[in-house]
Fold:
Amino acid sequence: MLVNGNLSAKNRAAEGQTMDVILAKRNASSDPIEGMFDFLVEENGSIPTIYAHHTEEDMTLALSQPWCSIGSDGLAHSIEGPLRRGRPHPRSFGTFPRVLGVYVREKHLLTLEDAVRKMTSLNAAKIGLKDRGVLRAGAFADLAVFDAGRVIDRATYLDPFQYPDGIEVVIVNGTVTVDHGRHTGARAGRVLRHGR
Structure:
């Protein structure tokens, strides 16, 4: 369990460390549960953490299944301004570039076409979004233009505020929203609901 949130001044040095290391430094080895509760009390009952709940073998098995789509529960963050807050999981900046760079280009686990299908049309179909995730007349034009030879995530657990490399243009509902690393100011997105 990796502590990844903003802690109080007293415990700031624990940010980016695993709980076993933190408890050892607090001399809580004789009773780690008591040490963890002391830490929780000092942080008003909340310690933001990242859990390692699956292995690379688990990920490889899941990704290789034809019915397994690829999504993210990452949040909307920015590297600056009001959306730069906390210490988010790196998936907020790099889920899809990681799939394209690591599992397609480096490991050859998926073809580029299948990875894109799993991230777009398969996801949209699973949750009942109509005219999304496909390129065809009458569908919403949501596109990401990327360099398949260069796309990769850069965000890490300790330094998550890093945009990926290799994404050139992002188009939302037919409107260019990101153009070569620069947000155009367009706000063409909308909340999507099942069946719409």
Q: What stands out?
A: The longest helix spans residues 91-106. The CA atoms of residues 96 and 119 lie 8 Å apart. The chain has a mean pLDDT of 91. The first strand starts at residue 2 and ends at 3.
